[in-house]
Write a structure and sequence with these properties.
This protein has eight helices and eleven strands. A hairpin with a 4-residue loop joins strand 1 and strand 2. The structure holds zinc ion (ZN).
Amino acid sequence: MDPDVNIESTYDSSSVFFCRVCSHGPLGASKYLFGHKSKKYIPLYKCNHCFSLFTNPREYTNRSENKFQWQGGIDYFLQRKDKTMRTVTRILNTLIGSNGGCGKKFLDIGCAIGISLIAAQQFGFEAHGVEPEIHIAQYAKNELKLNVRNALFDRNLFESNSFDFIMMNQVLEHVLNPKVFLADTITLLKPGGILFLSVPPADWLRLKLSNLTISKIRKLDLFYDPDEHVNYFFQKGIKLLVQGSTATFDGIYHPSKTRLFFYRIMHLTSGSYVIRKPYSI
Ligand SMILES: [Zn+2]
């Protein structure tokens, strides 16, 4: 425990808690993170088997996965519109090629205002999205005329084996049962389909940086939002989650081949992964 942590403002870390990825446990609290929203010190649990790290908000709030609130407003997404378009276009170009979406279905889970759907439509996809925040989903539907459902993701929202490409960007770190969430997502993929999964990158270097002053730079701080990010996955954790499903782990994604090479030899990650559902299952 950090020496400057006031014990009165921390949470009980004695409760039994098992790894959400590999079920290893019980896990111990490895350190305490300060939650800027809750204004509390939050225990961080570490799995020594798969290196995943977790917080457990249910220990200290009445947080429920059925509640979703976004304070950032529509402007946050509009300001990033062009960048998001470029990013998704590059991903689709790399993984399916131009016109590779003709006659195929695309789904973005946690799609925000749906910019990825616009990019997917340009590749010929029939594009769908799910977004839990009501105002954001309404903007996507009413202003951008996109096929976005306002709901928390549930496999029953869509038919099994119905999507050729699913994107899930910065979602899995928020959910309390990532194993079920990922397996449910993969259920919706057609055989031969691709899941593009992106989570905040966690690796040995980022873990080291998080202990330094440099971690005050938000982009480099793995633990910048412990109130909301309840899971921190190393590549090994993502591989294990995929192994427990009907899909296969294809590798790390990064648009730069040089960076990808560097990541591989240094055992680092971009936090973006390509997962494929085999044809023969
Ligand atoms: Zn584990």
